Each structure stands twice: as C-alpha cells, then as structure tokens.
Amino acid sequence: MDLSREDRREVGIDIQRIEFGWPLGMPYCRSLGHGLWEVRSDLVGGRIARVIFFIHQGEMVLLHGFEKKTQKTPTSDIDLALKRKREIEA
To answer: What pLDDT score was predicted for residue 87?
Structure first.
C-alpha cells in the first residue's frame, strides 16, 4: 500500500485499536471467514483502506494491506492473505 504519512498514521491507529481491544467488531473490524479478519480504515478524501490479519498463537499477524476500490473485498486479496496465512501456520 502506497499511502501518505497521514493515511499510514490512520491505518496504524486502527490496527492498534484492534490489537489492544481485541476482540472488536464493526465498525473497526470484520470477519472475512477462514480465520481472516479485516481492519477497516477510512482515509481522507473518502478513500478506504483494509488490512487483512489473523490471530496466531495469541498474536495479531498482518497479512495484506490494500486500498479498497469496490464494495466487496476482491477475491485476489483474500486469496493472497490465505496463502500467507498457510505459510505462517506451516
């Protein structure tokens, strides 16, 4: 994700909110299934960022971040996160 400093700060605050408040639900966090969750961040200019993560041995593991362009999370982004999750669990 190529974000401005301000946008990176906002995403970081949202990740921290979930990390220290786990478990959290909407509007900050949503399940994607398969043990994956997404951090939901609103950026300046009405843009949206998502960071997909899972919980591994009690730790929040960030798998993939992207700026969301469509209503539904793209399958390719979920597939990439699942691939990385399997690599960590192996």
So the answer is: 97
